[in-house]
Amino acid sequence: MKSTTKPKTPPAKTSPRKFRVLVAKPGLDGHDRGAKVVAAALRDSGFEVIYTGLHQTSEMIVNAALQEDADAICVSILSGAHMTLFPEILDLMKKKKMKNVLLCGGGIIPPEDATALNKMGVGRLFGPGTDTREIVTYLNEALPKVRG
Questions:
Q1: The sheet that has 48-51: what strands, in order across it?
Q2: What is the pLDDT of residue 11?
Q3: What is the pLDDT, as a whole number, of residue 12?
Q4: Would you call 18 helix, strand, or coil by DSSP?
């Protein structure tokens, strides 16, 4: 008999405090289902999650991450504005000396754009349909290195 139980999402690794992840939806894109699914999966895996809601500016996202002492900013962009928004967020993070904060995200991002963004300093970018366990695993591996 085949098991119908789904493999469990790996838990957030233990550390002095839980990893804090800010999940953000910049710009005018109103499609937030994926961001909410990721936020819930991260929360269920033991992360502290701050969800900014829709229509955030880059400044609002970076300021929220700074105020919340976030370890990562995960941005969901489906509008096609990723080549503008990710560099803008990175620039603001540098200006605010947020070198120990990971910027990553997801959406519909062509591979050549993802490569260019990675070279600029953006972490991993996940496409539609990515298993949330993959995102949890990535953050568990990347955040201890970023946090230092």
A1: 48-51, 20-24, 72-77, 102-107, 125-126
A2: 57
A3: 56
A4: coil
Q: What is the three-class DSSP state of 61?
A: helix
Domains of the chain and any CATH numbers: 20-147 (3.40.50.280)
Residue 144 Cα distances to 38, 131, 148, angstroms = 20, 21, 6
Q: How far apart are alpha carbons 18 and 57 in whole angstroms? A: 26
**What pLDDT shows up at residue 97?**
97
The whole-angstrom separation of Cα 73 and Cα 21 is 6
> Residue 101 — φ and ψ, nearest 5°?
-120, 125
First-to-final CA distance of the chain: 46
Amino acid in position 81: A
Cβ within 8 Å of residue 63, ≥6 positions away: none
Low-confidence stretches of the chain (pLDDT < 50) are: 2-3
The per-residue pLDDT for range 29-52, each reduced to its tens digit, is 888 999 999 999 999 999 999 999
With tokens 């919340």, the residue in question is 68
Measure Cα distances from 120 to 34, 36, 87, 124 in Å. 25, 27, 7, 12
